[in-house]
Design goal:
single chain, 257 residues, alpha/beta, Rossmann fold, Alpha-Beta Plaits, 2 domains, 7-stranded mixed sheet
Length: 257
């Protein structure tokens, strides 16, 4: 099983498909959240190790595309080292994920201890440094509102939701988009009739959000796509990306460099 899953992960890596692993203390609601996000029917129960093998599903995320979502075994305090080894194939999905979604039972009075235990296991399997988005689940149990908490840079750090009631799932998908999406550029450009090849290529990439034509036959396009895709397209057409980007985006390139 370990060998097969390793091969699958390498294949996803070559295809540049991001992977998201749900981790958390047992009965935090990982499988329920997994089911809600993927419309799947993974077994969910209030018992230890309700999920013994990672269940993988494809999830479409806006501005990202296909993402592999993995539901993993629930952690417990004092998880014996031999059990960590036994579940190595399962836990390896977390260690090699693009993003961890740490699902926390927000209504559990021992939630901080549970978080500490989960982080201890993640450390043991070499996954503690994987980027993490926290999900405070079961907010319906204490009448809280769905919300996203961000850091000082505006990056989503925690999503408060109820997987069972379906509250805040839209906020989670929004947070996933922000955490997983590449540098997205959103701008307008005007193309002449002679630049029809570029226009067609942008349509093929599903990058055109709006399009209009003026009396002179020129095309006005509102475009949104990953910067990398745009740069690759321009290179393929023998064009300079900066010749089409607004000055603000060009200056951003210089600043990031």
């Amino acid at each position: 099983m370990r060998s097969q899953r390793s091969q699958n992960r390498r294949a996803r890596s070559r295809a540049e498909i991001p992977s998201v692993s749900l981790v958390g203390y047992t009965n935090a609601g990982k499988s329920t959240l997994f089911n809600s996000l993927t419309a799947s029917e993974v077994y969910a129960a209030d018992q230890l190790f309700a999920t013994l093998d990672p269940t993988l599903r494809r999830l479409e995320v806006e501005d990202v595309g296909p993402v592999v979502l993995a539901d993993t075994v629930g952690f417990i305090r004092h998880l014996p080292h031999k059990l960590v080894e036994a579940f190595r194939a399962t836990l390896q999905e977390a260690a090699e994920a693009s993003l961890l979604v740490h699902v926390i039972d927000s209504a559990d009075p021992d939630r901080e201890l549970n978080v500490t235990q989960v982080e201890a296991v993640l450390d043991e399997i070499g996954a503690l440094d994987v980027p993490t988005l926290k999900v405070m689940n079961k907010i319906d149990l204490f009448d809280s509102s769905p919300r996203i908490e961000r850091d000082e840079h505006g990056v989503p750090q925690t999503v408060w939701l109820s997987a069972q009631k379906g509250l805040g799932l839209d906020l989670l998908t929004q947070a996933l988009t922000e955490r997983l999406a590449e540098d997205i550029i959103d701008f307008s450009l005007t193309l002449t009739p002679e630049q029809g090849k570029l226009r067609a290529a942008l349509h093929e990439l599903n990058a055109v959000r709006d399009e209009s034509f003026d009396e002179g036959g020129q095309t006005q396009l509102d475009v949104r796509l990953p910067r990398r895709d745009f740069n690759q397209l321009m290179a393929r057409l023998g064009e300079r990306a900066d010749d089409y980007l607004p000055v603000a985006l060009q200056e951003r390139d210089v600043w990031e460099a």
